[in-house]
Amino acid sequence: MKMIQKGLLFIGLLSLCGVFIYAMQDAPTDENFEKQSVNGYNVYALQVPDNLDLAGEPLPLKNPDIYERMDRELLVNTYWQSNGLLMFKRAHKYFPVIEPILKKYGVPDDFKYLAVIESGLVNVVSPAGARGVWQIMPATAKEYGLEVNTNVDERYNLEKSTEAACQYLLESKKLLGTWTLAAAAYNAGNSGVSRRLKEQMVTDYYDLLLGEETGRYVFRIVALKEILSNPLKYGFNFREKDLYNEVPTYKVKVDTAVTDFALFAKKFDINYKILKLHNPWLREPELNNASRKLYQIEIPVKGSYPQ
Fold first, then answer.
1. Where are the chain's structural domains?
2. Which residues contact 43 (CB under 8 A, 6 or more apart)?
3. Mean pLDDT, residues 191-214 taken together
4. Quick one: pLDDT at residue 14?
5. pLDDT tens, 228-284?
6. Which of 87, 163, 178, 218 is the most exposed place for a label (fewest CB within 10 A)?
7. Residues marked as catalytic
8. Which fold has domain 53-242?
9. What is the dihedral of CA 257, 259, 260, 266, to 10 degrees?
């Protein structure tokens, strides 16, 4: 009996040693840190890339404050996985609309990620009254030529609102001198950023002490740029067919009032909902258009929405 007990004790100690050795092998050492289980869930610290930039303007990542703020945004946006996947899906649909407009105006391509952090690429409404993908305030919209009223609100028109955003960013860059400060000004306003630079006697965004939202703003843009540009690096797995695609459309010119958009939609073999999905800037069931202004209404190509 004692021999059996000793044998069992020996086997137990051997097993315990084996478990300890196995655990040590799976510890997060430099050698095995990158290992990932196929079906398990692992949370890893992220390596902040040595070189990150916004529109070619580098982040001073050797500054410990800047490093920690960048690390925070990479972590937050990487491990909010459901939101991250939605951003990949929507970007595939809407970036092809945004990118050529940025190029046309000479605004760096990186600013498409500003739209991502502003709205998640959907037409949202902020508590302050900013609307659309680019989150433009009413006064700013009108300043840059967008129509804003209860009947028509062109902040919801992706093409026109992107053009307005480009004009604002170009003006900010001219006033403030860098694209990084222009990005900050999109959140805090040109006068707000100018005032803080003067008060704190600095010339660089990364030297400014700012409130929570504007202080995170540029880092969030850069984080989304880094993640959306490197999906596998940050653990996002998807196929081309998983992404959303832009529905092909053509434009119908309208320079009169439209009394009933439900009836109008039927002329093109679509329904009221589909018409409004493609033209969210039409805010009511009819178009007043007393001035006989020329509008262009998007109509999906026949067959895009199978019956």
1. 53-242, 249-300
2. 79
3. 97
4. 42
5. 999 999 999 999 999 999 999 999 999 999 999 999 999 999 999 999 999 999 999
6. 178
7. 118
8. Lysozyme (1.10.530)
9. -50
Q: Spell out the residues 6+ positions from residue 282 whose beta carbon is closer than 8 angstroms to its own.
A: 151, 152, 261, 275, 276, 297
Centre a 10 Å sphere on the Cβ of residue 80 and count the other Cβ atoms it contains: 12
Q: For the segment 3-43, what is each residue's pLDDT rounded down to a tens digit?
A: 334 444 444 444 444 433 333 334 444 554 555 545 567 78
Whole-model pTM: value is 0.86
Taking a C-beta distance cutoff of 8 angstroms, is the pair 105, 165 a contact?
no
d(CA 115, CA 221): 9
Give the per-residue SS3 of 212-246: HHHHHHHHHHHHHHHHHHCCHHHCCCCCHHHCCCC
**Helix/strand/coil for 287:** strand
3-state helix, strand, coil in the chain (%, to 5): 55, 10, 40
Residues 6+ apart with CB under 8 A from 55: 108, 110, 111, 179, 180, 183
